[in-house]
Amino acid sequence: MHRLTKKQARRIAVRAQLLDAPRPRDLLSVVERLTLLQVDPTAAIAPNADLVAWSRLGSSYRPEQLRRALEVERTLFEFNALIRPMSDVGLYLAGADGYRGQSRVDVWLRDNDRCRRDILRLLKRSGPLTSRDIPDTCVVPWASSGWTNDRNVTQMLEFMQARGQVAISSRVGRERLWDLPERVYPRDVEIPPAEEAERIKNERRLAALGIARAKARAMPMEPIHVGETGEPAVVEGVKGEWRVDPAYLDGAFRGRTALLSPFDRLIHDRVRTEELFEFEYTLEMYKPAAKRRWGYFALPILHGDELVGKLDAAADRKASVLRVNAIHEDVRFTPAMTRAVEKEIADLAAWLELDVR
Length: 357
Hints:
Elements: E1 2-4, H1 6-16, H2 27-34, E2 37-38, H3 48-57, H4 63-71, E3 76-79, E4 82-85, H5 89-93, H6 103-111, H7 113-126, H8 152-162, E5 167-172, E6 175-179, H9 194-209, E7 211-212, E8 231-235, E9 242-244, E10 257-259, H10 265-268, H11 270-277, E11 299-303, E12 306-316, E13 321-329, H12 335-352, E14 355-356
């Protein structure tokens, strides 16, 4: 059993997320370590995938690098609103059969199997298409109380992707282009048994997080638990047992200052963030303006192994300005911290090709 202080646990988490110094050098190695970049189109400052990449790579990163990796080099792929390394594609195709048994979905797919076959024939003949380009030949509409109600083609494509029958080839703006998987994924992809794939995904997730719980509450898109992989640990002042990747137990720590996306994996698990970093954070874009404490799209501020505040800023592209509305200090900034944060803000503005105001 490893016994860790909170500082040690925080440093493990920061190192695992490539937020220590020196910075990594290329996009692919970043995504291979993090295992994912979440696709979120909110661009109050920049889309999440780009902002996460910038926070690791700095201004050497350009968004066209991500597009090229996804659409030309095929070293990355998009699956379920997450961008992952193509080397992991077999792990997610391994679970394709596991989606069977969800009775409502199975019945709907059975009733609309002709539509599924129509889509495959059309893609084979025409190549990549958006959902709007695909005729709706479903005989039973998809019923939902939300935005997916009667969006039959979109739902069919989502279910087919989960089952490995179609793949996202590229995007035009925010629209996905769908194609046959053999035109997107490597032809020689190895698909392990589902149980082995789950074990490997847990190992990869722990390597990306550094320290995590064996079991945790369900989360959309990507779990935050890691099963029994790694080694057991306890953290001083925090209840319960953790799993830690032993690769991070040794080695010197060199911290730096970073501005994080609200969707960054370091702070995505809000419970872990409060337990290890004693940092409270809520994305407030869905709150009325009068009820916001930190701002519409506030960026958590990392300094060394501590989360020290939030940056309330917005990219005003029409005025060519990065507007800094406020810097909320959770702890009193030292002059050195202030200089480091200001340097990161200036770097962010330069990367966005905006002036700071």
